[in-house]
Design brief:
This is Protein stunted-like isoform X1. Pfam families: ATP-synt_Eps. GO terms for molecular function: proton-transporting ATP synthase activity, rotational mechanism. Belongs to the eukaryotic ATPase epsilon family. This protein has three helices and two strands. By secondary structure, the chain is of the alpha+beta class. It has a single domain, classed as Atp Synthase Epsilon Chain, Chain: I, CATH 1.10.1620. Strands 1-2 form a two-stranded antiparallel sheet. Strand 1 and strand 2 form a beta hairpin. The longest helix has 15 residues.
Length: about 60
């Protein structure tokens, strides 16, 4: 069994934690660019009767 699974994590959460730790460990000159790549953008569209009824955009930064 994988260590991340034994710890009760799914792969997505494990990779998020790994990426966050890597960004924290970088030197200052590389850290700013890496933090930009850490932002997550999500788009939600509600559908009814086969047509989009409302679109909302949420931005999550970690």
């Amino acid at each position: 069994m994988s260590a991340w699974r034994a710890a009760g994590l799914n792969y997505t959460r494990y990779s998020q934690i790994s990426a966050q730790l890597l960004r924290q460990a970088l030197k200052k000159e590389f850290k700013a660019d890496a933090e930009k790549r850490g932002a997550t953008h999500i788009k939600f569209t509600r559908w009814a009767d086969g047509k989009p009824i409302r679109e909302s955009v949420a931005e999550q930064t970690k």
